[in-house]
Amino acid sequence: MTVRKSFSIFISIVVVSIVGVLFFSIDSATFDVLENTNPLLLALAVVLVVLGWCLDACKFIFLARAAGEYLSFRQTIPVVWINYFGSAITPMQSGGGPFQIYLLYKNGVSVGKSVAITLVRTLQVIFLLCLIIPFSIFSEADFIEKHAMLKWFVGYVLVFIVVSSFLLGASIFRPHWIKRWSNGFLVRMKRLGILKPKLLLGAARWTSREIDNYSINMRLFQSTGKYWFMLSVLTAAAHLWVYLSIMPCLIMAAGFHVEYMQCMLAESLLLFLLYFVPTLGGSGAAEGGAAAVFGLFVPWNLAGVMAVAWRLISEYTGIALGTAVAIRSLGWGGADKVMKEEAERLEDAGE
């Protein structure tokens, strides 16, 4: 499937989702409430989005410094935007990495270091979410008890946090364990008929090489670049806090009181879920999930409108800018080539 076609499918799903969310939520009273929206708080929400982009760019700068590379803000802000584009055209938002690696390489960063930088940047977000969720659970236990859906999903996330934390520690201090488990998993996939026998050796070699590259660069971040790495972690925490503040800001703009930690918990669970949604860019689930989260804090006739507003300023603007960067830097044909090369690298890297 071409990038242009994937992008068209993403847009189609988004349009259908927006229409569906608005159709099942708005009524005549919706517009009366919207007339009293606080424009200053709406503007603040937009400012938070821009600030989030700046902090994300700083993360790349600090991680690059930790890896011994030097990048400017002007070089890194397109890397931030193109991630939105790549995530929008791939399932589980997985396609941002190849485009970020391309731009980083274009700016003089080796492919190996670019892979490490983009991987660590993503892992920072996931594990910071994993830290926020348990803290929110203990501080807002009554809120979770009132919502059965949240209680079920919190249990799932806690299991994921424990397993992921163990795997992260093993990947850093005992990488040979990860290699052994990965090879065992690949063999089991072959026995089940999911993985073709002729691809087993190549997949095992690719997995082993990627684990080695990851371990080498993680040790680099922990040694000579540890101070820059810690600065990137602090910046990632600030970035996530800013991003999570957009939703409560919109709720307050509509004239409703919101408990910040409750909103942060619900929003963190939604963001965590979207990493595993198989649709392109999490579309459909993102709009419907956002409406469900807003519905916990505002009347349902406002939840749909606010969900669309949240997605518009926090994601769609970044996707639009990322699309412009991709077309200007690569063109549709170049974007196809990047995705094709990534697919080929995954398939036959072991040859």
Separation, N- and C-terminal Cα atoms: 25 Å
Helix-strand category: mainly alpha
Q: How helical, in percent, are the residues?
A: over 70%
Q: How would you sum up the major sheet?
A: none
Give helix and strand order, one letter per element, not per position.
Answer: HHHHHHHHHHHHHHHH
- Strand tally, please? 0
Mean pLDDT reading = 82
Rg from Cα:
21 Å
Tell me, briefly, the overall form: globular
- Give the low-pLDDT segments: none
SS strand fraction: under 5%
Helical run tally: 16
Number of domains as seen in the coordinates: 1
Polypeptide structure, described:
By secondary structure, the protein is an all-alpha fold. The protein has one domain. The protein contains 16 helices and no strands. The chain has helices at residues 3-23, 28-34, 39-66, 73-88, 96-106, 111-139, 141-145, 148-173, 175-191, 197-222, 226-244, 246-253, 260-274, 285-294, 300-329, 331-348. α3 packs across α6, α13 (260-274) runs antiparallel to α14 (285-294) and α15 (300-329) crosses α16.
Please name the defining characteristics of this protein.
351 residues; 81% helix; 16 helices; mainly alpha; 0% strand
List the helices and strands and how they pair.
Elements: H1 3-23, H2 28-34, H3 39-66, H4 73-88, H5 96-106, H6 111-139, H7 141-145, H8 148-173, H9 175-191, H10 197-222, H11 226-244, H12 246-253, H13 260-274, H14 285-294, H15 300-329, H16 331-348
Helix pairs in contact: 1-14, 3-4, 3-6, 3-11, 3-12, 4-5, 4-15, 5-6, 6-8, 6-10, 6-11, 6-13, 8-9, 9-10, 12-15, 13-14, 14-15, 15-16
Can you describe this structure in just a few lines?
The protein is mainly α.
